[in-house]
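Title: Prediction job returns without error message
Component: structure pipeline
Severity: low
Priority: P3
Assignee: unassigned

Description:
Job completed but the reporter wants confirmation the result is attached to the right record. Sequence as submitted:
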Amino acid sequence: MEKEKLERIRNLLLERQREILGKVGASSEDLGQLQNDHTADWIDRVTVDNAVNNLLNMESELANELMAIRRSLRKIKEGTYGICENCGKEIGYERLEALPTALYCRNCQDEIEKSKGSNSGYRGFTSIPKEIFEWYE
């Protein structure tokens, strides 16, 4: 990958990392305030508990994204960034620009998603017997 393009993606990753760290810091403060709120009203307590759970879920998602960003930054440093972890081919720049933490090229990602879909147990609408819908006609 061209040096300028790689530097652009590196800057995108670093900017997103700064955003996440800012959000995590802010939500951690919010979390502390919510957990220290000793509201007597049980309805308020349920609301506070829901808010705490939402913040914890958000922080978990942000932590996963932060790990992916750090992995990508490490790969840039090692010179292995942009190489599909499945087939070893180069991941397209457009894909990396849109999803800088991508691990797989588009073809391999499609195959992975197909295999996950086939194992999910979802059979789609075509497997539903037509008789079930007769009442609708």
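Comment from assignee: result matches the submitted record. The CA atoms of residues 9 and 15 lie 10 Å apart.
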